[in-house]
Design goal:
about 450 residues, alpha/beta, TIM Barrel, 2 domains, two-stranded antiparallel ribbon, about 40% helix, NTA_MOA, oxidoreductase activity, acting on paired donors, with incorporation or reduction of molecular oxygen, Diverse_substr_monoxygenases, LLM class flavin-dependent oxidoreductase
Length: about 450
């Protein structure tokens, strides 16, 4: 059965395999544990989230140090602006062994990986985790990443999504090259698998070719879950076609309601059941033993821990634009908006969030502090009630929770917020199934017989 509005809330933990969480000042937080180079650190966080019955933990990724600001990685290294990013395949392998129920997801780029590689990686993870794999699809275009992968020229915005559409077709086709019952294991007859049930893909397209079959049999989930976070019009269309969990970044309730309605309508227009797709904005939860304690925690996070240079470094990386040519208090003009790809939506969100003139400092703070999504502040009960308002108010199907410090943020949520959500019937008290699709209420897809695609080669 597809996920239905009014059912249980989805909770996803937004992870980074590195020195800081998505909040750039987290490494300076006095309660942060600097264990990110130790396997036991990730195992500990995974078990903690599993105790809180989270649906999924997924890892963001970037394939370069931030190096666009002033043409150097120096500021990223100096101020800890996410200079460390570990290989997610290894991290997920650790978590597959140390957890048993929580979903495990990772970001893999359609720009810097091949479809066969992605298909094999996530099919392998799905088997080794017992059906808990998810792939966060990104169409990354960033000069720092390109310079690590020998990419000289990027495709335009819409063409990038055209390429990603074909990428998903190839990956999905490879996942379907094994029938459910292909493996026989008939020792007496010497028959390992039925060759009539293992199929070549034979894809030759505009961007990719892949013969197949995949070297990994059909997985426990049929296919790993697809996550996507496109926010532009073309990105929303892409998500409507492919995504099963959509990750958004809406700063306020009204904006989130509009985004939710628009995205669900697009999913319907794409011929899919809107109730079969979960839409979850990124949010921060700042939880205290009292409301005053929570507000004091929030003030420290907003004012004390993120250096302005870390903010500008991350903003430059996000926008693929060198902000070293601007002062922090320069206003964001129409000329600047027109010259920087991807900045328009961010500026519009900020104008909604803070009102008035938006400065470079505002933009940088949005990227590096706690302004990227809703921020729920208060006691455990107050935070749970704030989350419930969004959930019942037609703004989301749950949340992707980001950490202000690690692992304490998730400890706070599992200890103080989750019990309140459970008492009010909004969140599970135990896992009812074994796979991520079970947790999300998603059908197990039926294998489609691969059909050779031969249409124009690149």
């Amino acid at each position: 059965m597809g996920a239905r509005r009014g059912d249980k809330m989805t909770l996803v933990a937004f992870m980074q395999a590195g020195s800081t969480s998505v909040y750039a000042g987290s490494w300076r937080h006095p309660a942060t544990e600097h264990g990110y180079l130790d396997a036991s650190y990730y195992a500990k966080v995974g078990r903690q989230l599993e105790e809180g019955c989270f649906d999924l933990m997924f890892f963001d990724d970037r394939l370069a140090m931030p190096g666009i600001y002033d043409g150097s990685v120096a500021e990223a290294v100096r101020y800890g602006a996410r200079p460390v990013k570990l290989d997610l395949g290894v991290i997920l392998g650790i978590l597959a062994q140390s957890t048993s129920r929580i979903g495990l997801g990772a970001t893999y780029s359609t720009t810097y990986y091949a479809p066969f590689h992605v298909a094999r990686t996530f099919a392998t993870l799905d088997h080794l985790s017992g059906g808990r794999a998810a792939w966060n699809v990104v169409t990354s275009v960033n000069d720092s990443e390109a310079q690590n992968f020998g990419v000289d020229a990027h495709l335009g915005h819409d063409e990038r999504y055209d390429r990603a559409d074909e990428f998903l077709e190839v990956v999905g086709g490879l996942w379907d090259t094994w029938d459910e019952d292909a493996i026989v294991h008939d020792r007496g007859a010497g028959l390992y698998a039925d060759p009539e049930k293992v199929h070549e893909l034979g894809h030759v397209g505009r961007f990719f070719s892949a013969r197949g079959p995949l070297t990994v049999p059909r997985t426990p989930q049929g296919r790993p879950v697809i996550i996507q976070a496109g926010s532009s019009g073309r990105g929303r269309e892409f998500a409507s076609r492919w995504a099963e969990l959509i990750f958004t970044g809406d700063p306020g309730l009204e904006v989130a309601r509009e985004h939710y309605a628009d995205q669900k309508s697009r999913i319907s227009d794409a011929g899919r059941d809107p109730d079969s797709v979960r839409i979850c904005p990124m949010a921060y939860a700042v939880v205290g033993e009292s409301e005053q304690h929570a507000k004091e925690r929030e003030a420290a996070l907003l004012e004390d821990l993120v250096h302005p240079m870390a903010s500008l470094t991350l903003l430059s990386e996000l926008m693929n634009y060198d902000f070293a040519r601007h002062d922090l208090d320069d206003p964001v003009t129409d000329e600047l908006i027109a010259s920087v790809s991807g900045i328009r939506g961010l500026v519009q969100n900020l104008r909604t969030h803070i009102g008035g003139t938006v400065t470079v400092r505002d933009l940088a703070g949005h990227r590096a502090t706690l302004l990227q999504g809703p921020r729920f502040v208060g006691t455990g009960e107050q935070v749970a009630d704030q989350m419930a308002e969004w959930f019942h108010g037609g703004a989301c199907d749950g949340f992707v929770l980001a950490a202000t410090h690690m692992p304490g943020s998730f400890e706070d949520v599992t200890r103080m917020v989750v019990p309140r959500l459970q008492r009010t019937g909004l969140f599970r008290t135990a896992y009812e199934g074994a796979t991520l699709r079970d947790h999300l209420g998603l059908d197990r897809p039926v294998a489609r017989r691969p059909i050779a695609h031969t249409g124009p080669a690149a």
